[in-house]
Amino acid sequence: MKKHIEVVGGIFIRKGKVLASMRGESKYAYVAHKYEFVGGKIEAGETPEQALTRELCEEMGAKIEVISHYMTVTHEYPDFIVTLQTYLCRFLSDFQVLEHERADFLRGDELDENNWAPADAPIVRKLKSELADSKDMR
C-alpha cells in the first residue's frame, strides 16, 4: 500500500498573476524542476491553515493571511498518494525564495499545466479559466 501524504499549498494572486514556485532536484523525477504552489506537509495536530502559515514562514520567510479554501485534489504518483488542499492567501510581509529554484508571478496565459507538478495541474486549469474570465481576480 502506498503512503498517503496530506499537504497544503498557498495560492497568491497579485495583479492577475499567480505565484509559481519551482522545485529543485528531487528523488521523485516527476516533480523535479516543476512549478508548485508553495506549502508542504500538514504535521500532526495542525490545521491546514496552521500548516500553510508555518510552511510559508519556513520556505519564504513570509507572514501570510489565509483567506479561503480554494480546491482539494488527491493524486496518485508512482511512489505515494498526495492530497493537496489549496487556499487563497495574501502576503503580509515581503518574501524570499529560500527552498525553491525560483518563484515567479505568472499571467494566466503563462500557466502551462505541463510545467507544474501533476497534483497541481487541475488547480492550475481552474485558476487559468477563472483568470481568463476575470481580469480583476485577486
TrEMBL record:
Signal peptide: none
This protein's record includes keyword Protein biosynthesis: no
Cofactor(s) this protein cannot do without: Mg(2+)
Keywords: DNA damage, DNA repair, DNA replication, Hydrolase, Magnesium, Metal-binding, Mutator protein
Species whose genome carries this gene: Candidatus Borkfalkia ceftriaxoniphila
Single GO biological process annotation from the record: DNA replication
One of the record's GO molecular function terms: 8-oxo-7,8-dihydrodeoxyguanosine triphosphate pyrophosphatase activity
Reaction catalysis annotation: 8-oxo-dGTP + H2O = 8-oxo-dGMP + diphosphate + H(+)
Tree of life domain: Bacteria
Protein family (similarity comment): Belongs to the Nudix hydrolase family.
Gene3D superfamilies documented for this protein: Nucleoside Triphosphate Pyrophosphohydrolase
EC numbers, comma separated: 3.6.1.55
CDD domains, A to Z: NUDIX_MutT_NudA_like
Nudix hydrolase domain location: 2-138
Protein name as it appears in the record: 8-oxo-dGTP diphosphatase
PROSITE patterns, per database record: NUDIX, NUDIX_BOX
Entry keyword Glycoprotein: no
